[in-house]
What we know:
The complex is a heterodimer of chains A (440) and B (173). Chain A is built from 5 helices and no strands.
Amino acid sequence: MNSSLLSETVVALGVAAAALVGAGIGLAVSAPVATGAAVAAAGVAVAVAAWRLARITAVCRRVTAVAERIAVGDFEARVLGIREGGELGRLQHAFNDAIDRCDAFVRESAAAMAAIRDNRYHRRILPKGLHGAVRGASETINQAMEVIQRRVAAFNADTAAFESAIGRVVDAVSGAAGHMKSTAGVLGQGATATRDSAKVVETSSEHASTNMETVAAATTELAASAREIGRDVNRSAAIAREAVAKVEHATQTIASLSSATERIDEIVELINAIAAQTNLLALNATIEAARAGEAGKGFAVVAQEVKSLAGQTARATEDISRSIVEVQTTMRAAVEAVTAIGSTMTEVDQITAHVAEAIEAQSQATQEIARNVEQAFAGVREISETIRRVTDHATDSERHAGLTMSASGGLAEQSAALGDSVKEFLTSLKRAPQRDAPAA
Amino acid sequence: MSSQPRPTHREVHFDPDDLIVSKTDLKGRITYANRVFCTVCGYSEAELLGQPHSIIRHPDMPRAVFKLLWDTIQNGQEVFAYVKNMARSGDFYWVFAHVTPSYDGQGHIVGYHSNRRVPERRAIEAIAPVYAEVLREEQRHANGKDALAAGYRRLIDFVNAQKMPYDELVFAL
Lengths: 440, 173
């Protein structure tokens, strides 16, 4: 089979032509045997040529069938069972080689493009075994893939940097929002506690205020009664002083009464002496009368009368003396009693003075208390007002803390949403080529 | 074909500008072999057509590599592999095989296609000891299934140790 069908056909046709020429010469020179032989040879040669042509036609048909399949993109088609050598054999092998290289290029470029579709960028068309325009196209595609790979790498680096930057921002914001939320929570709790405490203080100060009013009223009453007592004590002191003066007067009266009794005593002594003298005279007269006898009898009676009068006078003066002594004794007792009353009165006076001083001091102390209570009352009123303002501020703080808390929650949500959106956006950017790819 | 050739230690080469091309049906039977393929392996087209592709399998090749190859292409993906093949003469030749599924107009896999190129020498020097190691692992097991599983594990361990996917690793060798 190594000889070529085509050359065999050409040889057969040549032989036929030569035989026909020989036959013509035979006819011209009238050599019937030679002519017949030549015609027979020509016939054989034509038959051989025709058989060879039939086979060439069969080869053409096979190659055409494969070419038609290739033309519609069926790269599985090849010329199989090539038995022909020579030009026709080379033609069919060369045809298969051409298809093989085109097939290789199609598979390589499809694989490289599929790799890019699947985000794999290392895949290159293998240029080995490819030649000419196909190799040139492969290299162009490889350069394009190189560029794509670099751009994708740069894009990935940029998006990664962007993602991490956004991530940091989101983390920072959500961290800050967390802090803000917890701070607002603490603030709100503090404000609530302040408000509660302030309410307690308000109630206490109102209570204190009421108590202060009661104390102030009691103090005022106390001051009034102290003033009243002071007035009474002063009156008592005046009375006591008056009593002392009267006691002194009484003492003087009694003293003058005492000197009067002493003078009565002297007079009684004098009367006593006169009575004793009279008695002696009466006795003398009696003796004289007796000497005179009858003539002196009348006289003796008068002398007896005078004697009894003198006795009576002596007895009366004795009575007076006893009475005077009694009077003097009573008077001394009276003087002692009056003196005692006087000193008592003096004591009363001194005590009253002390009491008056004490009352005065008490009155001043009470006024001091009243002033202090008034000041304390003012202080408590101020506390009440301050506490009311504190309560208002605490309520405000509580409300703001609540607002801050919900705002921080919103902020955290928004920042998380931002992070998610960016992540989604970047993912969709990176995946975009794959998603857009048609199903294989 | 009737008798398996005995491997020699002689390496044969083919032109770096050439492609060894073959196609198989879904079961791995050869449906097309190009002229370069026939020349290098020493079998005629007629001898190759209808035969399993393992006709050129070299005994130095671990089965785990073919498992990886088949698993990948049956999944509809392309696969690259360095393969040591054996010619009819028992000589060997290394190829850098690119195997891809062929699809019909409806997207069904109708067969597989393999383009083999002349591999980089340093890649062969890197992969040959790994294959030898995997093969030794397979030979430690009498049971074929266990052998394949153990070899496959060893191969995957090697890939994982390189910290890159297999399809990138084959180009990095």
